[in-house]
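Ticket #4471: structure output looks truncated?

Reporter: J.K.
Steps to reproduce: submitted the chain below (223 residues) through the standard prediction queue, then opened the result file.
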Amino acid sequence: MVIDFGGGVLGALQRYADPNAVNVLLSHLHADHCLDLPGLFVWRRYHPIPATERGIMYGPANTWARLGAASSPEGGEIDDFTDIFDVRNWVDGEAIELGTLNITPRLVCHPTESYGMRFTDPSGATLVYSGDTGYCDALVDLARGADVFLCEASWTDDPSRPPRLHLSGAEAGRAAAAAGVGELLLTHIPPWTSREDVISEAKAEFDGPVHAVVCGEVFDITR
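Returned output as attached by the reporter:
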C-alpha cells in the first residue's frame, strides 16, 4: 500500500515492494502528491510479468479524470486506467477495509478536496496521516488517541503565512496535544522552511516524542 504518489515515489517504491502489487491511497490531487502515478500505469501495463489483478485506488471525487488526463499521451484526452486500477472515491468519515487495516478518511482544510486518514490494525494500533491541511477540528478528531500522528508542518508560525493551507510546527504540536497522541512525526517540511524551527515549535506545544521524518526511515507502530 502506498499513501500518496508524488515525484520520485515510483523509483523509491522498488526498494520496498513490487509496483505491480501495490494499492494506492491519495489524500488529494495536488501534483506533489500524485504525479508519479502515470509512470506506475506504464509499469503495470507493460512489465513483462503482468499484475495478476487490478490494484485498488482511493482518492477524491475527480481522481479518475484528473489522473487520466495526466496519463494521456494526447492533450484533451483521458487515459482510462481502470484496466489496471479499481478507482474508488473517499466518503468523508466512511471507513473502508483494505487487507487487515481499517481506514477512516476525514475531509480536512485545504484548497482542494483533501483527506486525512486514520489506519487501525487488528491489535488496535493506530497511525493517523494528516494529508495537507490547515488547522481544523476534523484533524484533531481524526487524530484522537492515535499511537502515531504523521502530520504535515510546512511553515513556522509566522502570521504572514497563507491561511487555511498548511500547518505550522506550532499548530502541528497543538493538534497532537489536543488529540492526545502518543508520538508526533513531522513531514512535508519544504526546503525553504527551517526543520529545526518547526521541530522546536512543535515541542513547545506537545510534550510527547517529536521527530521530523527523513527518507528511508521505518517506524514500528504497536499497542
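Triage note (M.O.): checked the attachment and the full C-alpha cell line is present. Residues 169-179 form the longest helix (11 residues).
Status: closed, working as intended.
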